[in-house]
Amino acid sequence: MVLFAVPNVFLYLPGSSVITGLPLMIISLQLIAGRPSVWLPRALSDRSLDRASFARIVRYSLPWVARIERLARPRLWPGAAAGVDQLIGMACLIMALLLFLPIPFANGLPALAIIALGLALSERDGIWLVAGLVASALAMVVVAAIIGGGAFAVAKIF
Predict the structure, then answer these.
(1) What integer is the mean pLDDT of 14-30?
(2) Is the CB of residue 116 less than 8 Å from the CB of residue 128?
(3) Nearest 5 degrees, angle CA 34-CA 38-CA 41?
(4) Residues of 17-46 as b/e, b for ≥16 C-beta within 10 angstroms?
(5) Could you tell me if 96 and 19 are in contact, meaning their C-beta atoms sit under 8 angstroms apart?
(6) Whole-prediction pTM value?
(7) What is the pLDDT of residues 118-155, one digit of tens each?
(8) Helix (H, G, I), strand (E, B) or coil at 125
């Protein structure tokens, strides 16, 4: 999940959120369903980035991911793994849907929420879980405000 979310935080490539949002939705649905391992359709799993683009993504994101990962460790996990995994899946699905929307520069916050939730999931870290859920709620408010502002502007024109 972190791998698919990182490009939406650090790089703004038009259309990239569509490419990264779909696998995030699929992974999120699998978390909700309780699937023990990740499966991606062949059409997605066989795709790849050109070497230069991937190297650029890794070069810019690796120092940030390394710093953040040092802060994650197993702590304060709230209980039954299946229920928490499903909660993370639901939050990530909503964030992936927000990423999928064609709203320029509105991808950063949902992507940060997915990264925090991914770290929480991988390390069973309750602090990252709370941070991810708070970032998810904030992302929903920000995107709703952007959509509402756009709708208000369009309504005012007509």
Answers:
(1) 87
(2) yes
(3) 120
(4) beebbbbbbbbbebbbeeeeeeeeeeeeee
(5) no
(6) 0.80
(7) 999 988 999 999 999 999 999 999 999 999 998 999 99
(8) strand
Residue bearing tokens 């964030």: 95
Amino acid found at 78: P
In the chain, the N- to C-terminal Cα span, in Å, equals 41
In this structure, how many other beta carbons lie within 10 angstroms of the beta carbon of residue 138?
A: 14
Name the residue type at position 153. Answer: A
- Residue 45 is predicted with a pLDDT of 67
| Cα gap 148→14, rounded to integer Å | 22
Can you give the pLDDT at residue 143? 92
Question: From CA 64, how far away is CA 43, in angstroms rounded?
Answer: 30
Dihedral pair phi/psi, residue 128, rounded to 5°: -65, -30
Amino acid at 36: P
**Could you give the CA distance from residue 158 to residue 147 in angstroms, rounded to a whole number?**
17
Q: Angle, to 10 degrees, between the axis of helix 81-100 and the axis of helix 16-33?
A: 160
Half-sphere exposure of 158 (CA within 13 A, CB side): 5
| pLDDT, tens digit, 9 for 90 and up, residues 72-131 | 888 888 877 678 999 999 999 999 999 988 887 788 899 999 999 999 998 899 999 999
